[in-house]
Amino acid sequence: MSLFSSIQQANNSLRAAQIGLQVVGQNIANANTPGYAREEVVLTPAPTQKYGNLLLGLGVQVKGIVQKVDRFVDERLRMTTSDRVGAEVREQTYLTLERLVGELTDTDLSTSLTSFFASLNEVVNRPEDLSVRELAVLRGQALSGDINRLASNVQNQRQQLNKEIIQAAHDINRLTEEIRTLNLRITAAEGGDASASDAVGLRDQRYLALANLAELINIKVAEQESGAVAVFVGGEYLVFEGERRAVSTHMVADRGLAIAEMQITETAAPLAATGGKVGGLIAARDTVLAGFLDQWDEFARTLAFEFNKVFSAGQGLTGFDQVTSEFHVNAPDVALDQAGLSYTPQSGTFEVQVVDRHTGLFKTHRIDVDLDGLDRDTTFADLVTALDAIDGISATITSTGNLTIRSDSAASEFAFAADTSGVLAALGINTFFQGTAALDLGVNQVLVDDPAKFAASRGGIGHDADNAIQLAAFADQPLESNHDASILVTYDSVVAEVTQGSTVAQSLAEGFRVFEETLVGQRLAVSGVNLDEEAVRMITLQRTYQATARYIGTLAELLETLVNL
Predict the structure, then answer these.
(1) Which residues, in sequence order, are bridge partners of residue 553?
(2) Are residues 92 and 234 in the same domain?
(3) Are 187 and 226 within one domain?
(4) CB–CB of 312/421 below 8 Å?
(5) What is the DSSP letter of 372?
């Protein structure tokens, strides 16, 4: 082995130390850079050289510069990040829903319910006083307004989440395009050989882009031999090598709202978003808030129909000259319980009282409603015919399919009583509430215009307060159609479900946060920069450089000796 070979050996050593120091400096400079993975110089012994019958090494050579990463930990971290972000969206949605419900505040709905039923007790105590009936109507309007407001606020919140989903589609496209571009740059920089020196800066950028994409949607990442990555959502790929597929949204109707559904633009296949911000937004919009709206609609429907069934069996201080049903029937020859009414009547009877205004005497007529499914059930047309046959009133079907009942003479009026069929409530005749959902619930306009028609009596027009007693007790009355739960119990269960859902969502989000922190710690242990370790590595390389320099000095003296011979 010649002195020149020794000089080459020293040169290799200096070069390795110099590159090592440069990598150490790079690590130290990026110690606080988000997404940065620690770099490491891969050293390997240089090829040997034959010297006589000996094989002597030529020192060290730099094989490459690679990132210290654990791909399994990185993949788990991305999955957990998606879970955490999705859980936090649901957590925040529940917290918002709790604020909207406003229970335990001065504006919660239980306060409106209490005030409404308290006003009914005033009607019981002073049935002859028109002002207390006016108050009951006003409190009913306040209650229905609060129910409307909550439904509207929840629907507005769904709309806001919908806008965020649309924006998220644009963000996904931006990130997948960035990843696609980085794939091309990485494969070009690495020469298509993923086992050689890594394109470290570009890989850091791609890691950060993948982490940001994982916050938006649940992804799986597979690195190819070329160094590029493939990104999948469910069974669909978004990025593969240098290609990407865009996502888009299309609108569909759901619960009175046009909602955005995400899909692969190229194939129109739905995007299986179960995690990340998008998965959380979809779950919050379609499960948390939509589920609450379903419950809230059911609560409003139960309140309206069951309260109206009691109310419609009573009489006010004055009777009717004319009344038109709130709901229409498109198929008059079909059984009433199959005619498409929003509320379903049952077999039973109700009474019509035709009253002489001068004498106060009235005649009661019973109308049978047969809906047992046997023989011929009562149709809308049958009902109109039976009503029209009553002496003193006439009944007709309007052009829109509504039922109109009129007095035949100005000297008479009519009222309703003893409805066991629920047909009056189902058609919207002599009712307190109107509407079929939380958004459109209100007080019957007939009562708003004339509170004297508030049906407090059961013994005749302006006779007693027996119906008001039943109405005042309605709040705590078990309802057979509602699994024997009262309306107050139903409201409490809706609120309790929101509270329980919020508690579970918070616990789940906290669990994912803790798990994510654990995985971040595991990644930092592998890929993070430890300044103490880098300082030790720097000193080691410095000493290597110094020793090599001294070795070169010795070789220089030997060469000088040879030259001077």
Answers:
(1) none
(2) yes
(3) yes
(4) no
(5) S
Residues 6+ apart with CB under 8 A from 67: 37, 38, 39, 40, 198, 200, 203, 204, 527
Note whether residue 378 is domain-resident: no
Q: Which tokens is 438 given?
A: 């939380």
pLDDT tens column, 17-67: 898 999 899 889 999 988 898 989 988 888 877 777 777 777 888 888 888
Q: Is residue 345 one of the residues assigned to a domain? A: no
- Containing 229, the helix (H) or strand (E) segment is strand 229-233
Asked if the structure places residue 40 within a domain, the reply is: yes
68-95 pLDDT tens trace: 889 999 999 999 999 999 999 999 999 9
Residue 131 and residue 267 share a domain: yes
Mean pLDDT throughout 358-371?
A: 92
pLDDT confidence of 196, banded at 50, 70, 90? low
DSSP, res 389: T
- The answer to whether 465 and 476 are in contact (CB under 8 A) is no
Residue located via tokens 């409603």: 369
pTM for the whole structure: 0.88
d(CA 320, CA 447) in angstroms, rounded, equals 12
Residue 47 sits in the same domain as residue 104: no
Conformational region of residue 119, where left means phi above 0, alpha means psi within -120 to 50, and beta covers everything else: alpha
Instruction: Tell me the residue type at 120.
Output: L
Among 270, 176, 161, 269, smallest CA distance to 219 is for 176
Same structural domain for residues 90 and 217? yes
Q: Are residues 34 and 120 in the same domain?
A: no
Residue 289 identity: L
Let me know whether 230 and 167 are in one domain.
Answer: yes
For residues 99 and 91, what is the distance between their CA atoms, to the nearest angstrom?
Answer: 13
The answer to whether the CB of 236 falls within 8 A of the CB of 217 is no
CA-to-CA separations, 409 to 108, 318, 356, 392, 394, in angstroms, rounded: 48, 16, 10, 7, 10
So what's the pLDDT on residue 1? Answer: 52
Query: Do 35 and 92 lie in a common domain?
Result: no
- Rounded mean pLDDT, 476-491: 92
The amino acid sitting at 545 is Y
